[in-house]
Every structure is written in structure tokens, then in C-alpha cells.
Amino acid sequence: MSRLERRPLGTTGLQVSILGLGTVKLGRDTGLKYPRPFTIPDDAAAGRLLDQAAELGINLLDTAPAYGDAEQRLGRLLAAGNRRRDDWVIVTKTGEIHENGVSRFDFSPEHTRSSVMRSLERLGTDRIDCVLIHSDGGDLEILREQGTLDVLADLKQAGVIRAFGMSTKTLAGGLAAVAHCDLVMVTLNRDQVDELPVLAAAHRRGCGVLVKKPLASGHLGAEAGDLLRWVTSRRGVTSAVVGTIDPQHLIANVAAIESDRPPPYAVSPPPRS
Asked: N or C terminus: which one in the chain shows less Cβ crowding within 10 Å?
């Protein structure tokens, strides 16, 4: 199997694999919407997962303070063995805090700055490649009124982060993020295609696009491979992020993306049966 294609993440100068690894299952097992329960892997199993990802050519890691202790674990794991921090593009977030099974949100400038500095410490790194605002659904109000973007722009200017954007929940928010950020993360899968116009806007502006929930948080089964190829073949998409703790799932996902078959759907995936 060849190593995964890498694409430029907008104009950030970063090159990322077209499949990224989401890490929520490395640190959190409560308040999630996955169809089946799972056990958070120990460090040995998590290390094997990272090594498998690297072997496949995956270099994008998606994490967040809201993912329990995923940031701390990544920091330890990337410092261990023969793993090199510079081999990875790390995306983390700010805005959502998940404690005692409950999420709360804070987009204030003060929290944003402290959150990024805490992520630096947890990840054991001197810079973060990308920081996304972890939206609570009020995308436009956050972008326009909270001052979050100003702090992230300052941190980018200072070299603490290389790029910033928003993990959005609305079409209007996605379009606004494209206009003001280096990258945007949108939801795109069989059942959620409302944000497709964001891809076209991002392509025109040269904004990076990460896709979250391409498999609807594990609720899609037999057609998962086709849907991954459909998502990653959309013009404007840089990378699709899939959260798994099973190295075999990673192998299967990469094989599906690299299949010689053409993308199965012309514009939108088939409606849910």
C-alpha cells in the first residue's frame, strides 16, 4: 500500500494527509454519540495506533481540550519511542471544556489565550500547527463579537500557532470562517450535506477545509469506504478526520480512499434508506 496523498492546507504552508486521525477516543468515553461503547486504549495500544497511522502516511492529528486527557496522552506518546513531533501536524481547539461529563463553553479572549498555552504544555510542544474554535453552535456571534479571532491572530503573529480557524456548526458560520480564517472544519457525510457551499467558497479563497464526522460518528457501516472516497474527492476538501482506536480500521479506510474506482456519487451521496 502506498503512502497517502498529501494536500496543502490552504495557504498555511502545511501539507496534510487526506485522512486525519481524530483522538477523542484516546481521552474521553462519556457524553459521546457513538453507536457502540468502547474502552479507552492504554498507552501501548495508543502508541501502536500512532505508529500504524505514520506507516500509512497519516500525519494529521485532531485533538481538543474537550477530549478528556487526549492532549496530555498525545504529548507523552509523541515524546516516546522513535516518534518525532515534526512528523505530525497537530490540530487542537479552544472554547469547549468538558468536565465531570458536562461540556461548557468560553470564547472570551482571556480563556482563549490560557487555553492555547495550556494545550502547548499538555502536548509538550513549542508551537501548535492549527487551533480551531470549538463552536457551541453560535458561529456568527463567536466570530463577530467574542474577540476570539483577535487573540488567535495575535498568537499566530507571535509564532505560538501557525494557523487558526473554526470547527463550525452552521452554513453561515462556515462561510464566515472561510472569509476570516486560515482553515475551517465542517460536517459532511451521507446525512449532512448542508455545508457543501463552504467547500466552494474555501476553494475560491484558498482556505483549508477539514471534514469532521465523514462517517457520522460511526453510524455508517457497509458504505463507509465509498463515503470516504466521496468526501475526499470533493473539490475544496483538504482532509477527512476519522476517529478510531483500531489500527485495522485505519488500514481499511486508507485502502478505500486509495481505491482505483471512481467516486461513487456525482454531487451528493444517496439519501438515507
From this structure: C
Collect contacts of 146-149 with beta carbons under 8 A, ≥24 apart: 146/107, 146/108, 146/109, 147/107, 147/108, 147/109, 147/112, 148/94, 148/95, 148/107, 148/108, 148/109, 148/112, 149/180, 149/181
Q: Coil, strand, or helix at residue 152?
A: helix
Q: Would residue 212 count as lying in a domain? A: yes
Domain with 130 in it: what CATH number?
3.20.20.100
pLDDT tens-digit map of 96-147: 998 888 889 999 999 999 999 999 999 999 999 999 999 999 999 999 999 9
Position 270 in a domain: no
- Between CA 205 and CA 42 the distance in angstroms is 42
Count of structural domains, the chain: 1
Domain that holds residue 240: 6-257
Long-range CB contacts for residues 150-159, cutoff 8 Å, separation at least 24: 150/109, 151/109, 151/112, 151/113, 151/116, 152/94, 152/112, 152/116, 155/113, 155/116, 155/131, 159/127
